[in-house]
Amino acid sequence: MTNLPQELLAFGKKVLLVYGGGSIKKNGLYDEIVSLMKAADIELFELSGVEPNPRHSTVNKGAAICKSEEIDVRLAAGGGSTIDCAKGIAAAALTEDGDVWPLVSGGVWVTRALPVVAILTNAATGSEMDAWAVISNMDTNEKIGLGGSALIPRAAFENPEYSFSLPAYQTACGAFDIFNHVLDNYYLAGDATFDLLLEMQEAVMRTVVKWTPVAMKEPENYEARANLMWASSMALNTVLDGGTVHGCACHMMEHELSAYYDITHGHGLAILTPRWLSYILDDETAPAIYRLGTNVFGVEKGFAAMEGAKKAIEAVSAFCFETLGLKSTLSDLQIDKSHFKAMAEHACVGGSISGPKELTPDDVEKIYEMCL
Ligand code: NZQ
Ligand code: ZN
Hints:
The protein has 15 helices and 7 strands. The protein has 372 residues and is an alpha/beta fold. The longest helix is centred in the middle third of the chain and has 23 residues, at 195-217.
C-alpha cells in the first residue's frame, strides 16, 4: 500500500474515496488510507454507504460530487459493490446530467470513463480486474451489467489481510461467485475445448473448493485468503474465457433474484447452480459435467458418463450446502414463485440464454421452480 499515493497522484491530487457500510472503518483500512493521503498531501472526498447490490441513485450521488469538486480519481475500498459503484461513477461523471441509468439500461459499451483505483477487501466478483459494473435500480426491479474497457481499474491493490475481517457467510458467498464465474465459462459451452484452458479453469475451481472452508474456519489464514483473492481476479479477467462469449446462464438467472429480492449474489448462484446442472444434464453434456466432478471434486473415474455426471452434481450440491453451509432453497430466503415469469423473461433479455443448452424463459422458470 505504500505506493498507493503514487498510483493516485498519476491522475491528480483530488481523490473520491468510495466505500460501503463501514467494514473498512472496523478493520483499520480506512485509517490507513487517510493517513497515507495526508502524508502525500492528497485532498480526500468521501462517498460512504454504498449498498451491497449498489443502487443507481448512490452512483449518481458520487457522480455529482465528481462533477462539482472536479475529482481526479475514484478510490474504491471494498468488495464488488463498492468497486462497481466507483466504476459507475467514473462513467456517469462524464455525461451531461450525471445519471448512470441511461448508460446501464441502454447497454452502452463504455469507452470513456474517469480513472478508478481499487483496494479489494472481498474475494468474489473479479470487479477489481474486469470491465464490468453491476448496478441495481430497485424502483424498477432491474439489475444490469454496465460494461466497457474504460471501466477496468487503472490499478488494483490485493492484500489478503484486508479480507481477514470478512464473515464466514460472505466468504462462502464470495467464493461461490468465483467458482461460478469459471463454471459459467467452462467448456460446457462447447467452444473452449483446448486443454490448457480447461486445466486453468479447473485449477481455479479446485482452489476455491480447497481454500474456502479453510478461510471460513480460520479467517486470518493468509494462504487461504491469498488463494481466494487471486482466484477472484483470475476468474473473470478474461484470461480463462479464451476469448469466447458465453451465455453465463446462472449469472443471468441470479441477477433477477437480487433485483427482485436484494439477496446476496453468491448465495443465489449456489442455489441455482446444482439445479441448472441437473436441468441441462443429458447425453451430450454428461461427459463435461463428469469431468468437472473428477477434476475439481475428486469424483472417482470409471463410471458411465451419466452416472458420473450425477455424482458430480451431488458433489457441487454438497459443497454449496454442506461445506459452505448455505441455505439450499429459494423458499429458505422467503422467495416464492410470484415473480418467476417476469424474472425468467428478463433473464433471457427478450430472447434466450445461450450455453451448453439454450434456455428459453420457460426453461428458466422451471429452473427457478426446482430451487423452491
Ligand atoms: O459495505 P461494507 O461495510 O464494506 O460490508 C460489505 C458488505 O456488507 C462486506 N465486506 C466486504 N469486505 C469486507 C466486508 N466485511 C468485513 N470485512 C471485509 N473485508 O461484505 C458485504 C458484501 O459486500 P459486496 O461488495 O456487496 O460483496 P461482493 O464483493 O460479493 O459484491 C457483490 C456485487 O458485485 C456484483 C454482484 O452482482 C453484487 O452486486 N458483481 C459484479 C461483477 C463484476 N463487476 O464483474 C460480476 C459479478 O458476477 C457480480 O454480479
Ligand atoms: Zn458473479
